[in-house]
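Worked example 3 (structure in, sequence out).
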């Protein structure tokens, strides 16, 4: 099996040190395995995605010494295939329309709830009893997680990163409490959420290893569930540590001070940047 991994940024802001770390780790792993490194532009959020940020992504990654197959997969060009999968899930009764706004969710969460307590901000299932025929323009599409989990009571994944490599499983009740019913189709426009689109493209691009930050660890279980429901293969996962700021907080897109472009403009070398994020030098990847 050829090792095939990808880096999948959203062009909604500048790439920062955390992205540089993630892309370099994936690239280095592919290189060490004599495999392939792909780039995927996750631009389904058309309200926030900008061509400007997309071209910055290419510039930043080239500067880091990375190379990838072209043409690059841009998700905005494949909306049809995400919708098809979403409708497949809907036909099987896993999807329901949801008209709740953030304020409705906050209000519902502040009322007394039955059953196990949900993690803060987790959607309480207000619209869960609705069927697809009641869908109104502007409704989001959510997955009934408990119902979907009946198809896969034990979610397993093979992890090679984090602290202990091996088979990881999740307690379904814990997933319900921590994630709740996820939005798979956004309300603003007829587009899929990241969670679904990434699953479909990881399969379409025959990704064997997903390398990404540990902030997505829990989302991975949901993605493995979606792979099972859609009959798609499950890659091996490698969740890496996050790059944090001086205060220990995870870097956000708005942390312009840590933007790769800023280091580039200030004359930082790629070797310096690798040291800064604690990665070994790999000179032949950028000479
Ligand atoms: N577009 C996602 C992000 O930037 C990609 C996550 C993933 O690697 O699956 O967080």
């Amino acid at each position: 099996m050829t090792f095939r991994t990808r880096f999948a940024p959203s062009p909604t802001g500048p790439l920062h040190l955390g992205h540089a770390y993630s892309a370099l780790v994936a690239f280095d792993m592919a290189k060490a395995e004599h495999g392939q490194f792909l780039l995927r532009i996750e631009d389904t959020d058309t309200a926030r995605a900008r061509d400007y940020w997309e071209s910055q992504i290419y510039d930043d990654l080239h500067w880091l010494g990375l190379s990838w197959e072209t043409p690059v997969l841009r998700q905005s060009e494949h909306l049809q295939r995400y919708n098809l999968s979403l409708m497949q899930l809907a036909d099987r009764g896993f999807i329901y329309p949801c008209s709740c706004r953030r304020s409705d969710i906050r209000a519902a969460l502040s009322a007394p709830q039955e059953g196990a307590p949900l993690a803060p901000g987790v959607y309480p299932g207000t619209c869960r009893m609705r069927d697809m025929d009641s869908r109104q323009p502007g409704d989001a599409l959510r997955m009934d997680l408990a119902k979907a989990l009946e198809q896969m009571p034990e979610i397993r994944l093979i992890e090679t990163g984090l602290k202990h490599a091996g088979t990881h499983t999740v307690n379904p009740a814990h997933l319900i409490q921590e994630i709740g019913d996820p939005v798979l189709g956004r309300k603003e426009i007829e587009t899929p959420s990241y969670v679904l689109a990434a699953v479909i493209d990881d399969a379409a691009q025959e990704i064997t290893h997903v390398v990404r930050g540990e902030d997505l660890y829990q989302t991975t279980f949901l993605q493995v569930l979606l792979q099972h429901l859609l009959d798609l293969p499950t890659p091996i996962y490698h969740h890496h540590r996050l790059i944090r700021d001086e205060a220990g907080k995870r870097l956000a897109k708005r942390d312009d001070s840590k933007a790769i472009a800023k280091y580039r403009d200030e004359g930082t070398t790629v070797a310096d940047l690798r040291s800064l994020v604690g990665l070994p030098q790999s000179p032949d990847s950028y000479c």
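Notes: The longest strand covers residues 36-41. The longest helix spans residues 17-32.
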